[in-house]
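Section 5.1 Outputs to date
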Amino acid sequence: MSLEAAVTHDDGPVGTWVPDLLLAGYEACRLPAWVPPEASLASRLAVAGRDDPVLTLVRPADGPADPRGVVVHLHGYNDYFFQTHLVDTLAEAGWAFLAVDARRCGRSWRPEEVPHYQADLREQADDLGRAVRTARELHPGVPVVVHAHSTGGLVASLWSHAHRARGGPDALVLDSPFFSVTNSWIQPLADSALPALARRTPLRAMSHAPSRYAARLLERWTFDTTLKTPDGVPARAAWLAAVRAGQRRVGRGLAVPVPVLLAHSARSGLDALDNPDLDSQDTVLDVVPMAHLGLGVGPDVTEVSIDGGVHDLTLSTDVPRAEYLRTLVDFLGTRLGG
């Protein structure tokens, strides 16, 4: 389904589950999103006159009748939910599933909005919180697990820490979380200069490069190239300032009290077409600082290194993908029982 069809979600009834326009056999529900008052100016700039961002929840039309729990998925940057094989694997193990396309991302993006922009990580964190609350309403009395990828992993870690006393997940799964800009696609900039720059020119593009990683994924997977584009999405000043503030907070250590699975590729490499290991490395982020910082998320972190995995482990080639999915299911079964 094309982008033009996808944005018609904006015309549907708020709070009503309707057939998803991107995935057959799935349903979507559009909900209004909260805007932090402190970010109101930058947010208005980002939506080009609109101050009504939305988030979109996505679920399979059919799932386990009596699920042992529910997994809530949050995507990364230049990304949205389309990984139905993840849902199939979890369903076979008895887990229900709910994804959230956060504001200005995927199904929630509208053409007049700046894609993937957020001036405050609490924006996506609130979208995740809304999804978790919905999951508990749909499946009362069972564990809720957050599965988050890349930037979503950064947001989910901070959200889980903030809700460690009440309302957080029963387990957290991090698929290559964006904990550091070291050797990443983000060009370095002194952190001391970012806040002022973000205030003056929040939408200034600080870094923009094609994603060879996304282009190569198209050889194995089918997705909307407007919602996950091989051309890449610019890293804007206010977004980068928010991300770096979140990464520094992770660097000081978090106290997520539930079991955490920290999964990443065994190696990183260049995001270049002449990289012979483009299909078997994380070519977006550096796994070394990711692993180091990830161990400080909480007191109960299980680290798993997937040999041959790419940045999104669920989109790896057959063998590493199967290893990751098997590890995920085993972790949930062992740590949450049922």
